[in-house]
Amino acid sequence: MATVRASCPTCGDVEMTTREVQVQVCTATEQGTYSFVCPRCHLIVNKPAERRVVDLLVAAGVRQVNWDLPAELSEPKVGPPITYDDLLAFHFELESDDWLDNVIAGGGPIGSR
Ligand SMILES: [Zn+2]
């Protein structure tokens, strides 16, 4: 199994096996990243990777995971954007014991009551 040298923002250069690194590629944009758990500080490190780096890592035996943008991004958006006042009204609404009943009853947009 090949050894991979990578850089942790806290610890500097660290080494690990190809099994301890993972490559992620977005199927929509083809942008790649690689990630690993730092063997010294145990934090997850995630870094952008050009196609060439992705290919080298995968050729060395690193597992590649393909992912797609969330479907919510292509959903049509209706209504005005949420404001700070809406957020504050929602906060106060959640403090009441019957907030869920009010929502289920279709009390209209929060803050309009
Ligand atoms: Zn580290």
Key features of this structure:
single chain; 113 residues; alpha+beta; 2 domains; four-stranded mixed β-sheet; 6 strands; 31% strand; binds zinc ion
Describe it:
- The protein is α+β, with helices and mostly antiparallel strands and 113 residues long.
- The protein folds into 2 domains: 3-70, no CATH class; 72-104, no CATH class.
- The protein contains 3 helices and 6 strands.
- The strands form 2 sheets. The protein has a 4-stranded mixed β-sheet.
- It is elongated.
- Residues 8, 10-11, 38, 40-41, 43 line the site of zinc ion (ZN).
Main sheet attributes: strand count, strand direction, barrel closure: 4 strands, mixed
Cα(first) to Cα(last) distance is: 64 Å
What is the strand content? 25-35%
List the uncertain runs. none
Into how many domains do the coordinates divide?
A: 2
Number of strands: 6
Main β-sheet, spatial strand arrangement: 5-4-3-6
Mean model confidence by pLDDT: 91
Rg calc: 23 Å
Number of helices: 3
Helix content: 10-25%
Bound molecules: zinc ion
- Shape category: elongated
Order of helices and strands: EEEEEHEHH
Would you tell me the structural class of the helices and strands? alpha+beta
Oligomer: single chain
